[in-house]
Amino acid sequence: MKRWMKLYLCATLLLSVALLSGCGGAVEPLDISSFQRIAIAPFSTEEDSAEMERRFPLDLATQLSLVKKDKEWIYDQSDTLNPIGTALTEQNLTPEDIFLDPALAAKVGQAANADIIIVGHIKNPKLDEKYDSNPLYDMSAQAGISGTTKFVIVYQWATLNMQVKAVDTKSGSVIWDNGGFVGYTKYIREFNTQDPARHTSRVEPDQLKADIRKHMLSQIGYQLAPDKINQRPVPEILHKPERKLVRSGGQPILW
Questions:
Q1: What structural domains and CATH numbers belong to the chain?
Q2: pLDDT (0 to 100) of residue 16
Q3: Whole-number mean pLDDT of the chain?
Q4: Of 11, 21, 209, 202, whose CA–CA distance to 122 is shortest?
């Protein structure tokens, strides 16, 4: 039993380290200092993340254009102002084509007169939750283990994988690849055991999706402009109990 517990703790530690580095090791930011015209293409997506194909690159490019005004950012801003989309259509290519083949990405970047082109792939958006029925006790106001001081925890979280590459349009070579970064946002909410809301009160799925998208905008933005955009922690805990909660026996809870 003790050996199993040691293995479990080791596995948990390794998972935590992986999540803290984006489930893929530390990502070296892209150095864009020697490039002036930077294109950001629509990202390829899986079916379950299709709504982010154009939305995420648009938000990312808008964010970067505001903090890096010395660079010229080329991206699709609307149905009529879409230099990358037009180049893709003219060459009969898809976002997936240029993500998989840097030579094709370079051709699209050349058509937009860009020095480099940013391409990406979004996959595995996941929303999940866990109800922890093991009781905790609020020791911040009073001692004791009555029903009024007993709490349970509901965890909700979202994860999203995003691989982003930069292709030199002259050489057609990949000059940077973040390796596939996994973003992770989390809510930890406490409910009194006598409160029926614990069975129905949850963060809505639309809010979870919006939060993981904002999280990834900061993470990818940091990887492209680390001097201007702050990196988020992984996992990023967006809500956690403020009260002092302990397990039976007085063991404190560390979130």
A1: 30-246 (3.40.50.10610)
A2: 40
A3: 86
A4: 209
